[in-house]
Amino acid sequence: MSTQDGPLYLGFDLSTQQLKAIVITSELKVICEAKADFDADLSKYGIKKGVFINDAEREVYAPVAMWLEAVDLVLQRLKEKNCPFQRIKGISGAGQQHGSVYWSMTGEENLGSLNPESTLVDQLAKKAFAHPFSPNWQDASTQKECDAFDAELGSPEKLAQVTGSKAHHRFTGPQIMRFHKKYPDIYRATSRITLVSSFLASVFLGKIATFDISDVCGMNLWDINAGAWSEPLLSLAAGADGLEDLKKKLGSVREDGGGSMGSISSYFVSRYGFPSDCGIAPFTGDNPSTILALPLRPLDAIVSLGTSTTFLMSTPKYKPDPSYHFFNHPTTAGLYMFMLCYKNGGLAREKIRDTLPPSKTSDPWSIFNETALSTPPLGQISHSNPAKLGLYFPLPEIVPNVRAGMWRYNCNSDGTNLQESKEGWSAEADARAIVESQILSLRLRSQNLVHSPSPSFPPQPGRIYLVGGGSLNPAIARIVGDALGGVEGVYKLDVGGNACALGGAYKAVWAMERKEGESFEELIGGRWRESEAVVKVDEGYRAETWGRYERVLKTFEEMENEVLKGEERNK
Fold first, then answer.
1. Whole-angstrom distance, CA of residue 358 vs CA of residue 366
2. Which of 84, 128, 306, 517 is the most exposed place for a label (fewest CB within 10 A)?
3. Residue 1 pLDDT > 80, yes or no?
4. In which element (H, E) is residue 81 found?
5. On the CB side of 246, how many CA atoms lie within 13 Å of its CA?
6. Peptide bond into 400 cis (omega under 30)
7. Contact 437, 553 (CB under 8 A)
8. CB distance 263 to 275 below 8 Å
9. Is 519 left (phi over 0), alpha (psi -120 to 50) or beta?
10. For the chain, how many helices (H) and strands (E)?
11. 3 state SS for 214-265
12. What is the mean pLDDT of residues 131-146?
């Protein structure tokens, strides 16, 4: 069947700042894409970088109505590009992880009775939701609730063993617990609670969608080993309203990451011309979707350089630890995804970039790149100069769990004599140091999860794939190779920053076209064209430079611990 008349598949990515859509063929060829940028297109909501911030309570949240309006906007833009909606046979996608959407008692009824002559936002925004906002992953308002979650099963280690993660501010369980305490009447007026991924799936399905087996692991509520809700943790989050009430609000979890949950809502059939038998596959979280943007091999790593910085690998071993996250794999039973995630990613780099002289080219990062690449590793012109190590957290950070701030330290080349810098550094020194800081944190926390690819190499990833907006930055690619390694090199996944949406589209292809027992890796791996999808951007492992970072890795951890001592809760 030719690409002119074959089936098409649609993938979405509902992130903090944008909604992206990408349409592909069965053979994984991209034929159409569109996006809505919330700040540029929907600034009337009053958001900045996609969210509202309440500094007094450390709350970060987004208006659900804005997301609804973005869905129609993106589909309209695809329509203007003559996207052949009538050929789309399956839809899947990704949502920013951990965020929760609170549906009203009539929410599902409203979803199922949409008029194609009117927009989603006009029909749903005021009636379908008990609460108009969704907490964003940058929210840091739940420290008390996190303490309770960590204590409920005995320790952060026990909580990580059961749910894949210790308690985190952004995780949905602590967020629900706080929401229940802050808005008890709204909580009781809530019929269902969905994640952002299942919210978006629900819109297309015309009824409330079940949770995805991977995204549910970002809640601190799902017992991964038991494959069931953790009743002690549900009871904690639900408070006086009780375990059974919260179970009903959450609903079921779909174990199969593929197949169809049902056909598309008639709203989209009538308004845009989708076929009535277009299937809606489970939607997953943005991080699980990212690992579906390529058939990832064991020991390969993905570094996602978006608003947040994220490190992802898949593994058959379940080895949870409070310092990172384990999730069920979004498509493949028996595999797990482990993840390191940081709030202070692209926005933190932008703040340092903006302290440098302005770019004289169309690339706003040109001066930053030149400066970072011309600065030697650890800011040392010679080994006798002090090494520079810093932490750059314009937002309160998750890992380590520390207040907002910037800290600059010096040490010797061998890592000894760590001292906070009294004189401070130049803005030029910060350009390299912030990227080093972010990558060294990845290396520190992933070192026990990688092994030697061969006897002649120290433990490190095989290939490192860069995705997200920062993957276009040559300075970051070089420093990733310097500090993290990658014996086969550092690659840019060349999908225009659309890895999450593309992973969703690939998931839709697999969900609708798989044969009995055919895994995602088998089906997508057989169709994926590496030469068309990745570009090598750095050689990766360089023994001498990698060794310089190895000598200061424990010192980097010591610096974090010094800063942690300054936290109020640790005094």
1. 9
2. 517
3. no
4. none
5. 24
6. yes
7. no
8. no
9. beta
10. 22, 25
11. CHHHHCCCEECCCCEECHHHHHHHHHHHCHHHHHHHHCCEECCCCCCCCECC
12. 96
Provide the phi-psi class of 513: left if phi over 0, else alpha when psi is between -120 and 50, else beta.
alpha
* DSSP E strand boundaries for 433-554: 463-467, 489-493, 534-538
Question: pLDDT tens-digit profile of 91-107?
Answer: 999 999 999 999 999 99
The 3-class secondary structure across 315-362, one letter per residue, is ECCCCCCCCCEEEECCCCCCCEEEEEEECCCHHHHHHHHCCCCCCCCC
255/268 Cα distance (integer angstroms): 27
Tokens 């140091």: give the residue.
433
Predicted pLDDT at 296: 86
324 pLDDT more than 60: yes
406 CB contacts (<8 Å, ≥6 apart)? 390, 391, 392, 393, 394
Other C-beta atoms within 10 Å of 407: how many? 18
Residue ranges in 125-195 assigned as alpha helix (H) = 143-152, 156-163, 172-182, 184-188
Residues 476-498: tens digit of each pLDDT: 999 999 999 999 999 998 766 68
Q: What is the mean pLDDT of residues 368-385?
A: 96
| CB of 34 closer than 8 Å to CB of 44 | no
Share of the chain above pLDDT 90, in %: 86
Q: The whole model's pTM is what? A: 0.84
